[in-house]
């Protein structure tokens, strides 16, 4: 997909950031594309929650799946993440 002025990429664990990114994409209509950022090894359950917390405390990075290629012509990139 080329020539879209706005590309929105978001990671959401609980779904709140995903909902906001999807709403923004709908509001912008044809001028925007949306892509979900996905971890290569998604955390799950209580131990996954602990791993995410430990990773945040230690500044660890998480590998993600390869994003969709070819965002040529994109004028604005919006990245949504949990806070």
Major sheet summary line? 3 strands, parallel
Strand order of the largest sheet: 2-1-3
**Fold-level CATH name:** Rossmann fold
Q: What gross morphology would you assign?
A: elongated
What Rg, in angstroms, do the CA atoms define? 14 Å
Mean pLDDT across all residues, rounded? Answer: 86
Q: What's the number of domains?
A: 1
The class by helix and strand makeup works out as: alpha/beta
For the terminal residues, how far apart are their CA atoms?
A: 29 Å
**Which range best describes the helical content: under 10%, 10-25%, 25-40%, 40-55%, 55-70% or over 70%?**
25-40%
User: In the CATH hierarchy, what is the superfamily?
Assistant: Flavodoxin domain
Number of strands: 3
Beta strand %:
15-25%
Q: Briefly, what CATH class? A: Alpha Beta
